[in-house]
Amino acid sequence: MQKEMDVAKRAKVIEWLKTEVVDQVSRLFKALWEGSTTRVTDSLSSLIVSGYILGRRLGISYSDLDENIMEKLKKHKQEGHQLEDWYHDISALEDHIRKR
Prior knowledge:
- The protein is an all-alpha fold.
- Helices cover about 90% and strands about 0% of the residues.
- The protein is built from five helices and no strands.
- It has helices spanning about 1-35, 35-55, 60-80, 80-85, 90-100.
- The longest helix has about 35 residues, at about 1-35.
- The model has no long low-confidence stretch (mean pLDDT about 95).
């Protein structure tokens, strides 16, 4: 019985985190529409936090997620992503993460 309750609780938490991600995307879009830098920053940071915690609840460690992000950035650079070509955003983010 206890194991069933634990599984149900974990499933409920995952569903709740999924709604948090959607809610933060909605808040981000509203903040962009309103032009509020403070609210955009708050929504983006909440979205990132929710993504990390959702990953953890799904069995992905924070370090594995960080490694995957770095791999994705390297791949984007190698493939000539437009944001890298135009603004060097990919390199800037890669440098920022590496220096943390």
